[in-house]
Amino acid sequence: MISKNDTKRINQFQQKKFRYKEGVFIAETPKVVEEFLIAGFVRKYWFATDSYEVPKGIQGEPVRISPAEMKGISRLETANTVLAVFEMPTVESIQMEGRVLALDGVRDPGNMGTIIRLADWFGMDEVWISEDCVDIWNPKVVQSSMGSLARVRPKICHLPDAVSTFVSEGGKAYVADMDGESHYSVNWASDCVLIMGNEGVGPSDELVELSKNVVSIPRFGEHGPESLNVAMATGILLAEINRP
To answer: What is the per-residue pLDDT across 3-20, written as a single tens digit (0 to 9) for each?
Structure first.
């Protein structure tokens, strides 16, 4: 059973100001919750219906609640069988080496979650995000990342400063834009940062100027869409960076 007070608090965590006041975030569905449990995140609340079975290897037992009570705290259209609230992790300072993915003003939660999942799939060393990106602990971002946020810890930073320092220390910066060199002919450096811009307006002029290397994905169809979704484009370019 869940108390009215806990129901109220968990519903408040859907809002950013309450999440950051308490330093917590919400995760739902077995797959997502279990990824955070396996990764050792500190749980504040853990609720599940009777139909949910705790997998072997995960310590503890959730508080059992009814499907109606789960519906009262879930943000999903169809409430699932498990919901947990975890403490936000401590994030270290950014590193100026390796393969970095940088996101400039990505504001759609679904895109952000998918991109974090892609960064996890391709084993990126770092993910930097600008201050005006969507909150990575937004429940929609957490959900669409499908648990990858348990392993990938995006770092909020002032991108122009970070990119400038990265380049000054010997790395190369590449920014994705419509008017650039085909990614097929790019010689990707081992220490590089790939910058993906806002869904509507693309990367900032400052970042384009700093990067020097503008990369595009050529369109082969004679008639087709004007542009690609930022998450789709990120997947294509990350695959290219990692091509043997």
So the answer is: 999 999 999 999 999 999
Degrees, nearest 5: CA angle 7-10-15: 135
DSSP 8-state class, residue 52: -
For the entire predicted model, the pTM comes to 0.93
pLDDT tens per residue, range 174-190:
999 888 888 988 889 89
Distance CA 233, CA 176 (A): 8
Tell me the residue type at 122: F
197: burial class by Cβ within 10 Å (0-12, 13-18, 19+)? Answer: buried
Q: What would the two tokens of residue 50 be?
A: 């009777």
Alpha carbons within 13 A on the beta-carbon side of 39: 19
CA separation for the pair 16, 24 (Å, rounded)? 10
